[in-house]
Prior knowledge:
The protein has 445 residues and is mainly α. 60% of the residues lie in helices and 3% in strands. The chain contains 15 helices and four strands. Strands 1-2 form a two-stranded antiparallel sheet. Strands 3-4 form a two-stranded antiparallel sheet. A hairpin with a 2-residue loop joins strand 1 and strand 2 (46-49). Helix 9 runs antiparallel to helix 14 (370-389). The protein is globular and about 55 Å long.
Amino acid sequence: MNPFALLLLLVLGGLLWAVPRKWALAPFLAGCCFTTTGQGLDLGPISLPVFRLLMLIGIARVFLKGERIIGHINTIDKLMLAWAGWYLFASLFHNAQQDAGPIYVCGIIYNQLGFYFLVRIWCSDVEDTIGVIRIIALLLVPIAIEMMFEKATGKNLFSVFGGVPENVLVREGKLRAQGAFLHPILAGTVGATCLPLFVGIYQKHRTLALIGIVSGMVMVGACASSGPVMSFMAAVFALIMWRFRHLTKAARIGTVVMYILLMFVMKQPPYYLISKIDISGGSTGWHRSFLIDQTLRYFNEWWLFGTDFTRHWMPDQGTAASPTHTDITNYYISFAVGGGLPALLLFIFILARTFGWVGRIYGSLMDEQRDKAFMIWCFGSALFSHCVTGISVSYFDQSVVFLWLNVAVVSSMYSSMLMQRDDGVVEETEAIPAEGFHKPRRASE
């Protein structure tokens, strides 16, 4: 760890320990945005980049200050714990020498489960969450400026930290800025998927919202990748659906029906439509479509515990791939490869439950707190953008925290809503008033 990174860690770690609970996420997210994974500590096989060290400080703060999650352990909490337990169990059947095994998987679980519960603890209501979004809007400004610098000079200022190249990547003659992230697509994805959150605070904090929107769009443009542009389009589509939210159920059914119809009229499976998308030039959409095809073909190899060898799935990929794995450019397939079908299904269940709760929360807030209802919808829009992104991108650096931020916030908002009803007393058979929701639920759900 170089002296500047050490100083930044000490400053951010001190702030993380000292600031009030509602601001605790700010220094952690700053560490994610302004330091690369090349800075940190290596303790044998254990890698602790700066953002993991900050998370460790956050966990210590939670225990020593007695901070707790809002409400009871809910369904998403249980699904997260179940996913982590299965993923760790499945890792026992993997070769620890091939970026797998218990130690490697513990790092993934630490990143996702640890951050999820920190957000559950520190964001207890909508106001806390709005404060976090305002901070993210400011944090993206230096990233956007630096990525513009990369486009102008071809040099990445974050290379002083290591972990990212000094010379900016070039494809089809276009410079692909990446900031502190490990790939230009991941940098652009962060900018694109945060845009709905800034739209959510526009009514009350217009200046910060506009700053965040501009910064996010600059990041999308500077990365020169098709994936973040599609993420941006997905986010905009989900935001527009606010006007037609009464049609969301019909839209879901229509999407399934359309996919089935395409299966009958297309020569290839409908997911090969991904191969037709090339917005920035030089897109590898065909690779992403073929990867899905091969994953289904070799289902028997990975369905139970995952697999340590996928190189034969795409043998013509070239020298860029590892000796054992093809390039897994799909977040969903990465769970399948790492933990089999159970890990993939648990991840999908988490996303499905989160979207379901977005509907219940905004439905209960529509009559009296429409602005907060729209804020929750914006989190659902951001999560939808991440879900679309996951089809063509596998998160493998600190950018993953921006996905789990949305899941954790919705989980906290749902528990908070339960606690606030009837002066904090919720009967086990009490229903939550929401559009299309009348079935009684237990407080733990």
